[in-house]
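Input/output pair, single chain:
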Amino acid sequence: MNINDIITRLNEVFRDVFDDRTIVVNEKTTADDIEDWDSLAHINLVAAVENEFGLRFKMREVSSMKNVGDMISIISERGK
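Output:
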């Protein structure tokens, strides 16, 4: 799975979770870039990403994610 495919799918997940069709994420996107991305939304987002990609993040992975790029890296590694 290449990075562009992952980003395309993540964009759809983010748009669904935040109910905002204008969201476009990239590797540098952080919670500061999306208005409603708070701790509760983060939990919903992680669950939605896990469902989309058929994986489960480890707690240490979730707590170490600083931006969407970190999420992409984990998904990319697991997709091999």
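The helical segments are 3-18, 39-53, 59-64, 68-78. The CA atoms of residues 27 and 69 lie 4 Å apart.
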